[in-house]
């Protein structure tokens, strides 16, 4: 359902459309009675026209609205208008944590506040089901630049898509990179599942990537059976966190911490333990240095926000609500990731997975480096520098393809990357149903180059090793565009 600016919906005046995700659209609206701006989410979910869905929507929205905690988003109002469920939430001037670069103490503080919010919800019988960086919003004090609020979005909303007749029995709701193995297996989530998702999220904030990456099948298998990758494998100075994350990411829920706060406290104690001095941080690769509190020069890296006209380091108000379902996979079904010889399709999933693989609008925003963060002493001339665009001779060649519905998106992206100094050696369109988000494919060894490129892609991108059957760009990085939101 599309709402035009200036129109009236459920008594709210629509000001602008902020984005769209798997469970509906998000709008900036004015509460005309209170002269207050709010974020309105219109739920577009299969089955929402039935009395059963409307009843379940009211129950879940009422439960979410009754949660009281400084770090839980406030639900103002909810209802059903012409058969369409909707709810309004607080509208904050902040950023979510997708692609965030925070100093370690701030990561620990984010973990502490989110853990407290989750434990509060768990005591009320509410499981979030979709904790991830895009569902965590932060604001900063305008005077000091320090963290002000840390807010968890979409409490209880993902549950709306979980039920017989919507996703089907034996399915899971969440985002694959951050989902606990028991939920991927289709079992009912418990508080321990939220703890696992929080651990995946904080792991990414500390290291720059979630614990398991790759194709959907490889990520599912890793959650189920792979050893927990050590944080120290990415950042050797954080070896004290290895045991903490090994427990929080245990395959069996009973082996994790008793609650989220205990997990967050363990992180605090580990960070307080003796660690290598600042000089050791100077030798970190550039892609890791910013996580130790070493940031690129102001303006060197564009801060991606929900503003359509993205400007360097601009803080733009965005909706404090994420859009629900990202991946849904039946437990009894076999998810097939097929690479056909000679095919340009890097993979295909089951029909159930593809149908629910809509992207969260919040996934593509990022957080600017913490204002006022102090960097360690400058590294020697031989050491790596903070992330920036290298000279043209050092930049791998790039191919850009459009796999989304927006005509000309690939061409526009190619022009922007070319202006940023990249050599675009190929472009075109891809017809594939298996790519549901912007992605940068790279050859082994080009991980850091892919990460830099992903940060410049309009709307942001994930990075994955180039599938063997993807032959359209044999000698460079490949950018596959789906959306610029």
From TrEMBL:
<dbReference type="InterPro" id="IPR011009">
    <property type="entry name" value="Kinase-like_dom_sf"/>
</dbReference>
<dbReference type="InterPro" id="IPR027381">
    <property type="entry name" value="LytR/CpsA/Psr_C"/>
</dbReference>
<keyword id="KW-0418">Kinase</keyword>
<dbReference type="GO" id="GO:0005524">
    <property type="term" value="F:ATP binding"/>
</dbReference>
<dbReference type="InterPro" id="IPR000719">
    <property type="entry name" value="Prot_kinase_dom"/>
</dbReference>
<keyword id="KW-0812">Transmembrane</keyword>
<dbReference type="GO" id="GO:0004674">
    <property type="term" value="F:protein serine/threonine kinase activity"/>
</dbReference>
<dbReference type="Pfam" id="PF13399">
    <property type="entry name" value="LytR_C"/>
</dbReference>
<keyword id="KW-0067">ATP-binding</keyword>
<keyword id="KW-0547">Nucleotide-binding</keyword>
<protein>
    <recommendedName>
        <fullName>non-specific serine/threonine protein kinase</fullName>
        <ecNumber>2.7.11.1</ecNumber>
    </recommendedName>
</protein>
<dbReference type="InterPro" id="IPR008271">
    <property type="entry name" value="Ser/Thr_kinase_AS"/>
</dbReference>
<dbReference type="Pfam" id="PF00069">
    <property type="entry name" value="Pkinase"/>
</dbReference>
<keyword id="KW-0723">Serine/threonine-protein kinase</keyword>
<keyword id="KW-1133">Transmembrane helix</keyword>
<keyword id="KW-0472">Membrane</keyword>
<keyword id="KW-0808">Transferase</keyword>
<feature type="transmembrane region" description="Helical">
    <location>
        <begin position="318"/>
        <end position="340"/>
    </location>
</feature>
<feature type="domain" description="Protein kinase">
    <location>
        <begin position="12"/>
        <end position="271"/>
    </location>
</feature>
<feature type="region of interest" description="Disordered">
    <location>
        <begin position="366"/>
        <end position="388"/>
    </location>
</feature>
């Amino acid at each position: 359902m599309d709402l035009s600016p200036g129109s009236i919906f459920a008594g709210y005046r629509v000001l602008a459309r902020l984005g769209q995700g798997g469970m509906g659209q998000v709008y900036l609206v004015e509460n005309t009675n209170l002269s207050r701006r709010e974020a309105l989410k219109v739920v577009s979910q299969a089955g929402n026209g039935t009395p059963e869905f409307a009843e379940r929507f009211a129950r879940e929205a009422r439960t979410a609205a009754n949660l009281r905690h400084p770090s839980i988003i406030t639900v103002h109002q909810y209802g059903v208008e012409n058969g369409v469920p909707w709810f309004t939430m607080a509208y904050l001037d902040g950023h979510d944590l997708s692609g965030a670069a925070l100093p370690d103490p701030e990561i620990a503080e984010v973990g502490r506040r989110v853990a407290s919010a989750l434990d509060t919800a768990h005591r009320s019988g509410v499981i979030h089901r979709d904790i991830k960086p895009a569902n965590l919003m932060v604001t900063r004090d305008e005077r000091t630049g320090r963290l002000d609020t840390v807010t968890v979005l979409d409490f209880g909303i993902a549950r709306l898509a979980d039920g017989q007749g919507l996703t089907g029995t034996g399915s899971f709701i969440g985002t694959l990179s951050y989902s606990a193995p028991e939920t991927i297996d289709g079992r009912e989530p418990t508080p321990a599942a939220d703890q696992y998702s929080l651990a995946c999220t904080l792991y990414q904030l500390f290291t720059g990537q979630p614990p398991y990456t790759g194709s959907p099948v490889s990520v599912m298998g890793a959650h189920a059976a792979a050893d927990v990758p050590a944080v120290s494998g990415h950042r050797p100075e954080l070896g004290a966190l290895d045991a903490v994350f090994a427990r929080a990411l245990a395959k069996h829920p009973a082996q994790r911490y008793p609650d989220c706060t205990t997990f967050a406290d363990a992180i605090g104690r580990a960070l307080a333990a003796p660690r290598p001095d600042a000089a050791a941080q100077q030798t970190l690769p550039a892609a890791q240095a910013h996580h130790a509190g070493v940031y690129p020069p102001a303006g060197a890296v564009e801060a991606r926000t929900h503003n359509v006209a993205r400007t360097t380091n601009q803080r733009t108000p965005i909706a404090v609500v994420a859009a629900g379902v990202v991946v849904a996979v039946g437990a009894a079904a076999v998810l097939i990731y097929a690479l056909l010889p000679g095919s340009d399709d890097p993979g295909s999933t089951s029909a159930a997975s593809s149908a629910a693989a809509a992207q969260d609008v919040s996934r593509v925003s990022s957080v600017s480096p913490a204002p006022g963060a102090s960097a360690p002493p400058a590294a020697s001339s031989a050491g790596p520098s903070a992330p920036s665009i290298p000279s043209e001779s050092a930049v791998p060649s790039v191919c850009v393809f459009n796999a989304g519905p927006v005509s000309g998106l690939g061409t526009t992206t190619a022009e922007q990357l070319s202006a940023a100094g990249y050599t675009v050696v190929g472009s075109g369109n891809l017809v594939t149903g298996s790519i549901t988000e912007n992605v940068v494919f790279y050859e082994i060894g080009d991980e850091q180059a892919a990460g830099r490129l992903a940060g410049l892609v309009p709307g942001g991108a994930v990075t994955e090793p180039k599938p063997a059957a993807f032959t359209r760009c044999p000698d460079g990085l490949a950018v596959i565009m789906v959306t610029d939101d």
